[in-house]
Amino acid sequence: MENNRHPIDTGAETGDESSGTLEGAFARVSDAVYALDSELQCTAANEQARALFGRDAGGEGEGAGVDRTTDATTRSLFGDAHVRAFESQHPHTAEAYHDAVGRWFEAQCYPDETGVTVLVRDVTDRKDRERTLVDGNRRLRSIFEDAHDAILVGDEDEIVAANPAAGELLGLERAELYGRSLEEFVHDDHDVDSAWTALLEQGRLRGSFSVVRPDGTDRIVEYNAVANVLPGTHLSILRDVTDARRRERQLECQQARLAALDHINGVVREINDAIVNGSNRAHLERVTCESLADSPSYEFAFIGDVDIRTNSITHRVEAGIDNYVETIPLSTDADDPAGRGPAGTAIRTGTMQVSNDVFEDPSFEPWREDAREHGYTSAAAIPITHDDVLYGVLGVTSARRNAFTDEERDVIGQLGEILGHAIAALERRRVLLGDELIELELVVDDAVAHFDGPEMTGHSVWFDRVVRIDDEQYLEYGTTAAETFPTVETLTERVPHWEGVTALDESHGEVTFELVIDAPPLIGVVDAYGGYVESAAIRDGDYAVTAHFSTGTDVRCVVDDITDVYPRTRTVARRRITPSREPVEQLRTRLAETLTDRQQVALEMAYSRGYFEWPRHSSGEEVAEAMTVTPATFHEHLRAAQQKLITAILEPPETTRDAVTDDP
């Protein structure tokens, strides 16, 4: 195509009125302007256009005319726009980036039949703003789509926008949320109307509520809402805090359990202090209940007495509450609803029983109103036992749900054993030191035949002393005729709890022996009730025993427990006796107060095994072996016992007073 460009010289007199008019118009325009003819060739351009698109853009001017560079540049940037405008004879706008100057330009093309006039503006700043806005919108969209928190946009009636996290939180595809109200998902316990009112009045609102998904599951959410982000449109951000709240509750429960454990350990220390200080049973029980009730972990505590014959539980001690046991239904009868709760079940089974939510536990129904009145949610009943003897039941309540679980349950359950052991020790002490005792004579008819033992008609065996080694093992020392001892050896093989018999000495036609017994039923029952065997013997196959108990012992329970093991047991005599207070008895009393258990065992075993005889029937090593301790330990205990024995003989007590004890 022939180049018919016509340069405009703005500094020369052309005489052409049209050119002058165009030149003046171009001069008055601050933006770049250029004109195209019908062949879309650039025929005129103002100074700004030549500066942008001509050689001036590269730093070399060509006067006022339209140079080839200007024509080529405008064609490359806006050529398509020129064609569209001219062909359509409608204004057309286009944008292009000019690499030479590093700027964005907008060309507004105004056509007529003779060509196209193009107005060019620098829109770089606007493009930058648009790009920034686009980038910002892209980031906002990315945040909206990728946010872990649920984001909802809408009004009171419907949701108009929701991100994927919202669909996951509410349990629906997010497209299914559109058109639904958030109120449909809010739990009934949340006051939605008040929340909307507060949001509209304040403009912002924070809080939490529970949402209910279509599948029925609940989630706890914290929300941050902004009203009228657009007129009538509100923004809500919901964060699922269900797991965090659960962890918080677990942490609170752990802290409460640790505090409770610390409190229980304090109770144990107070019980031990009371034992060391020589407290009686009533004081021990009072200390236990008061220590539990004073703890912030528990509401109140009580100890009840148990009468198996009448299936009744009666008051002994209470703390933190008054007249509780006497005013509620309690029983040990499994057929009675009042006997199927923690207390009755603990007594029947001999194991700790708990109700960690008394309002959900069906067996606790008889006491629910009582629980509401006194403010407890969990309850525990711990049998107070020692060696299978029941001394009562300890009841504890707590306002905490699930209070008696894990370590706390284990530790508080030990209170029954600690109290039972302490009460049993007190009972034994009362027997040893009491001014008055109950003496019980029993006979087990055909005791040897009970174990399919050898014929013992005309034979007698005397058991002189019983020494308790530990909770299960006893050593019994006795004598019999030399011709009877083989029969005793045979009987040892037949009686399950007789572990072995050893002859310690044989002289004058008699054998002194040691019998190892493992958990003996009869002796174990006597020991469990705090008594001791005064004497025992086998005569013509019958077993006769005389035992002493404190005056507060329920002898009928003792006899019942022995009869359960040996049905052919009969009571020969039951009487109250006053032990002799001769000097020897006083010596025994003082020794019982000063000797430790191991010193007592060492002294009794050494004496019974003939350690003090000459020649000795047993060496120190043999006695130590029987005690299952080292010889050095045995001699240490024995020397300490001998020192206390000599001291008791040679140094009378500073004061002498009547002993006073409380009946349990």
Question: What can you tell me about this protein's structure?
Answer:
The strands form 4 sheets. The chain has an 8-stranded antiparallel beta sheet, sandwiched between helices. A 5-stranded antiparallel beta sheet has the order 2-1-5-4-3, sandwiched between helices. The model is unreliable at 1-15, 56-64 and 652-664 (pLDDT under 50). It contains 21 helices and 23 strands. Helices cover 40% and strands 27% of the residues. α19 packs across α20. A hairpin with a 4-residue loop joins β17 and β18. By secondary structure, it is an alpha+beta fold. It folds into 5 domains: 17-126, PAS domain (Beta-Lactamase); 147-240, PAS domain (Beta-Lactamase), CATH 3.30.450.20; 249-430, 2-Layer Sandwich (Beta-Lactamase); 434-579, no CATH class; 581-664, Arc Repressor Mutant, subunit A. The protein starts with 16 loop residues before the first helix and ends in a 14-residue tail after the last helix. The protein is rod-shaped, with a radius of gyration of 52 Å.
